[in-house]
What we know:
The complex is a heterodimer of chains A (74) and B (208). Chain A has one domain (6-73): Alpha-Beta Plaits, CATH 3.30.70. In chain A, strands 2-3-1-4 form a four-stranded antiparallel sheet, with helices on one face. With 74 residues, chain A is of the alpha+beta class. Chain A has helices at residues 14-26, 55-62, and strands at 6-10, 31-35, 46-51, 70-73. Chain B has 208 residues and is an alpha/beta fold. Helices cover 36% and strands 22% of the residues of chain B. Chain B has a five-stranded parallel sheet with strand order 8-7-6-5-9. Chain B has a four-stranded mixed sheet with strand order 1-2-4-3, with helices on one face. In chain B, helix 5 links the parallel strand 6 and strand 7. At the A-B interface, helix 1 and strand 2 of A face helix 4 of B.
Amino acid sequence: MEAPPYAVFLFPSVSHTLKAEKILKEQGIVHKLIPVPRHLSSDCGVCLRVLAEQQERVRKSLQDRVIWEKTVPL
Amino acid sequence: MKTTVDARGLACPQPVLLAKKALQENAEVTVLVDDDIAVENISRLAAKMACSFSMTRKEGGIREIELVRTGASLSSPLEDETLTRELTCAVAPKKEEAPFVIVLSDNRMGRGDDVLGDVLIRGFIHTLGQLKPLPDTIICYNAGVKLAVKDSTVLDDLQQLAEAGVDILVCGTCVNYFGLGEQIAVGHISNMYDILETMAGAGRLVRP
């Protein structure tokens, strides 16, 4: 079975990542905190992986609450 | 006395042990073997036991080895024991590597900050699934068993590892202590015997 398409959200720090994770948890959005994939770079080293189809919903949830650096399809 | 040992088809260390036994009782021994490892081992035996050694290749991959004792036989049982130990599989096929074991002794990685430790262990277990080769066994004990419960953030990673053939041992005493009996969702409940044996028999033991 092929893995579903994902997108990762990269944040400026671990605490930003954790704050974002808390928001996604509250909203019941399926996500996973993973190390930043090797081919990407980030100072903080961890990022949030979500289903690609959920990307917009995640953006809306995080908007104005926590800043992120970028999103990258995985 | 003269005798023949048929050691064809026997795996190391059988041929060399049979040859040695025959040499202790006979001055001349013919050994039939069918692989070079046995030949090599028996030639070492001959050198150690002061025997002449000659080998002839026969049909069907059979090697006929002639051993004739030229010196005194082994003097003491102690020497004998040392010799056996030295010869046994002196030249043996490379054994499979000893097991690679990961020990999860906590539900966090490292000490210092619990929140950070939680972030790190999640990253560690997720990345473990991409490691080649995968570990043979993962042992969870103490708070490490909390990683194997139903609502664990690394449950999917551990399940994927289990599906890939990694044996996951979960300490039963710890599960009981934390009252997680109904919560364990991956691996199998194990005991100190298996845990200690697995740790003691590991080639590599990694603890995050």
